[in-house]
Automatic annotation (TrEMBL):
One Pfam family this sequence matches: SbsC_C
Keywords: Coiled coil
Taxonomic lineage from the root: Bacteria, Bacillati, Bacillota, Bacilli, Bacillales
This protein's name: SbsC C-terminal domain-containing protein
Domain SbsC C-terminal: 63-179
Species per Swiss-Prot/TrEMBL record: Metabacillus fastidiosus
Cross-referenced InterPro entries: S-layer_SbsC_C (IPR041378)
Top-rank lineage group of the source organism: Bacteria
Coiled-coil segments: 65-92, 204-231
Length: 766
């Protein structure tokens, strides 16, 4: 009975609320209100029935059933009728009816959004099927890429629709049903589409000569390839077989990539077999090349690169280890110069040579090579004023022979990889060589090797020293290598680095003049030793090096490994040559009070190529304790300039060069010579300071003028006599061409400008 009483009370309460909704001030209004309330009630009842349909956890299939659609249509019609009735109703409880109707509309909207989401499947499938057609055919082209991005856009649209579905669980079910497969399909070809798109971008950049941008994108392309493998492997672990290999598309992309590679390079084949008339790439003028140069050199051919600023790499290919001669004359390379072997099949039954001719690589005067990489046997010769920053011998075969000759004093030579036999010619000059692999050093009489560092990366390795190493200071940096000194070999000095704790094995059949920290067995000339209780006390050793002072043209920077001992100081003296330096070196406890203190920054004034001997002396009694030496490196500053126009104004006696770039006000400006109508017009070195300076006279001009530099313009103000001499130069016309002669803006050390442009001369007569 108690339960029935509660139910009765609850029913009475609901009736009361409903009745209150239709209370009216008059019988007519009451009747109207009752009718409108009925419409709202039916709308809420119809919309309420939709709740059973938008709970997807109860659905067997995610489809719009006939019952759901009928229920939705009925609710929609009931809501429309109720809306019309409420809109026309004027009673006092209109707002309450509107609020009740909003509940029905909310339920209808939830159902509508679910219907929209389910209907989205058909639209998605159309885009999926379109892309699937290309994937099955393994075809990639502009249409396929368009289909990919269209599907991507449609998926974004679908995601916006799905995000509005009522209920987190419902949204999860919808996404799982309709988005997983399209996402997998997209991911399965994301690399192929990205690669295709990026390749098109690279091709466009190459066409527009935007080489650097194209190179950066090409690196991205290679990273894409690596990521693609990982993506497909990971995807197939989760969705087996859904990430196919797509060999057909890969072949299309690889063929396209190979064509792109050709766009980065300029192919040059050495065809001439006449040394006096080589194949030449380059002109009389300086030419800037943005692409890589790929040179093919076969045996008996001759090729010359000349007057080039190469912003890319230079690759020299030999055929089966055999090649001809390649010369680089006035070539400024920003990238790497690399020599490597291309293995080719013999043509027409020809045999691969048992004794191939190694490439002859000549680095001519004026050339600047930051890195030279040798992967095969080669003969390398550097002419005077050629600069090679790093020469890396990184051979792929252990029996390769590398011959070095010429001026390599500014070059750091490193042997690594499989090692090699390095033959030093009679006229070679090398400041420093580092051995990181098995190496045979075979030095001819007269070879100059100052410092040889053994840093073998693997143990055991073998380092063999042969020939004239009478100037070589060998420092052993680790115990990985066995040092073999061949019969008849003379080594100036062998020193064990103090950090080496392992046993050093030396097989000596030659002669070592001095040993520090190590005993040389079977030495034919007893060495000077820094250790041992029975040894005659000798002066200690310093490791000294030099490099150019970039802020000046007449100074070098001297560096000493380690600090002076407590109570000691470093002093120095400059000698003209090695003979004088050897004669002037002090013995232990010699008086060196007259020697100059080495500045704390190491900067001293000295010409290039002189011998600097550094002594560590006692600061009180000025007695020598240690000694070392190095060769100065003093280079004139390169004024990296280009100019666009030169004009001579006869009214004011001004020779004006405009459009100068990369000039610093405190740099040295070497306007050494210009070529005009094949007549050289030298101008001597001037120092820019922002104000007037006395200028040395022109050739054929005896009096001095002045010039000043400002905002990219250099003005040489001539005297009347100077002006007349300039105007009387052969062929000097009103408007003519004035060209930078080879070596313009270079000093006596042949430091070339980075850019030299043609200029026009405009003459305004008085």
């Amino acid at each position: 009975m108690e339960k029935s009483t509660k139910s009765f009370i609850h029913a009475a309460t609901v009736t009361a609320v409903t009745a209150s909704a239709v209370i009216a001030s008059s019988p007519v209004e009451a009747s109207e209100s009752s009718n409108v309330a009925d419409f709202v009630k039916r709308a809420n009842q119809s919309a309420g029935l939709l709740k059973d349909y938008y709970d997807l956890t109860k659905w067997d299939k995610i489809v719009i059933s006939k019952g759901f659609l009928n229920a939705y249509n009925k609710a929609e019609n009931d809501i429309k009728r109720a809306e019309k009735a409420v809109r026309e109703f004027k009673g006092s409880n209109k707002n309450m009816l509107i609020a009740q109707l909003e509940i029905a509309k909310s339920n209808q909207l939830k159902a509508a959004r679910l219907i929209d989401a389910i209907n989205m499947e058909k639209e998605l499938n159309a885009y999926v099927n379109r892309l699937q057609k290309y994937i099955k055919a393994e075809t990639i082209n502009d249409d396929m890429v368009e289909a990919y991005y269209d599907l991507s856009d449609q998926m974004k649209k679908a995601e916006r629709v799905f995000s509005k579905v009522y209920g987190e669980k419902n949204r999860e079910i919808i996404r799982g049903k309709f988005l997983i497969e399209p996402k997998i399909m997209k991911e399965s070809v994301i690399y192929e589409v990205s690669s295709y798109t990026l390749q098109n971008e690279i091709a466009q950049q190459l066409e527009e000569d935007k080489i650097q941008e194209a190179k950066e994108n090409y690196k991205k392309l290679e990273r894409l390839e690596r990521r693609a493998i990982a993506i497909k492997e990971a995807g197939n672990k989760i969705h087996k077989g859904k990430y196919p290999e797509l060999k057909g598309m890969t072949n299309i992309l690889n063929e396209s990539k190979n064509r792109l590679q050709n766009g980065f390079v300029i192919q040059i084949d050495a065809k001439s077999t006449e040394q006096a008339n080589p194949t030449v790439y380059g002109t009389k003028e300086i030419t800037t090349v943005k692409k890589d140069l790929v040179i093919t050199s076969s045996e008996g051919t001759y090729l010359e690169l000349k007057n080039l600023n190469v912003e890319g790499d230079i690759l020299i290919k030999t055929a089966n280890g055999s090649a001809g001669q390649v010369k680089l004359t006035n070539v400024n390379a920003k990238g790497i110069v690399k020599v490597e072997e291309v293995v080719e099949k013999p043509v027409n039954g020809a045999k691969i040579l048992a004794n191939p001719s190694f490439i002859q690589l000549i680095i001519g005067g004026g050339s600047k090579i930051p890195i030279l990489n040798l992967h095969v046997g080669a003969q390398v010769s550097a002419e005077n004023h050629a600069v090679i920053g790093n020469l890396i011998i990184n051979t792929l075969k252990s029996n390769e022979v590398i011959s070095l000759n010429g001026d390599l004093f500014l070059t750091k030579v490193t042997v690594q990889g499989q090692g090699a036999e390095v033959r030093l010619g009679s006229y070679v000059s090398i400041r420093e060589m580092i051995l990181k692999a098995n190496t045979i050093i075979n030095a001819a009489n007269g070879a100059k090797l100052n410092l040889l560092l053994t840093e073998s990366e693997k143990a055991p390795s073998n380092i063999t020293l042969k020939g004239d190493l009478s100037l070589a200071h060998v420092i052993i940096r680790n115990s990985n290598a066995v040092i073999n000194i061949a019969e008849g070999t003379v080594v100036k000095k062998i020193e064990k680095d103090p950090s080496v704790t392992g046993e050093i094995k030396i097989d000596n059949k030659g002669s070592v003049e001095e040993a520090v920290g190590i005993e040389i067995p079977n030495n034919t000339a007893p060495p000077l030793s820094s250790g041992g209780s029975d040894a005659t006390p000798t002066i200690g050793s310093l490791v000294v090096s030099a490099e150019d002072d970039n802020t000046s043209d007449d100074k070098t920077v001297i560096a000493v490994n380690g600090a002076a001992e407590s109570g000691n100081e470093f002093v120095y003296k400059v000698f003209e040559n090695m003979t004088d330096a050897n004669a002037g070196k002090p013995v232990l406890n010699a008086d060196v009070s007259s020697w100059s203190p080495l500045p704390s920054n190491g900067i001293i004034t000295a010409p290039n190529g002189k011998i600097v001997v550094v002594v560590e002396r006692n600061a009180t009694d000025k007695k020598a304790k240690k000694v070392g030496q190095t060769t100065t490196v003093t280079e004139d500053s390169t004024n990296n300039a280009a100019f666009t126009i030169a004009a001579y104004n006869g009214d004011n006696n001004i020779l004006e060069i405009s459009g100068l770039i990369n000039i610093e006000a405190d740099s040295n400006f070497d306007l050494k010579k210009l070529t005009y109508s094949n007549a050289e017009v030298p101008l001597a070195l001037h120092t820019l300071a922002g104000n007037y300076k006395v200028a040395a006279s022109l050739s054929e001009v005896n009096s001095a003028g002045k010039y000043f530099y400002n905002s990219g313009t250099l003005r040489v103000i001539l005297t009347d006599d100077d002006a007349e001499a300039v105007e009387s130069l052969s062929g000097f016309g009103h408007i003519d061409s004035l060209t930078a002669f080879e070596g313009w803006n270079s000093d006596f050390e042949s430091n070339q400008a980075k850019e030299i442009s043609n200029i026009d001369v405009t003459v305004t007569p008085e």
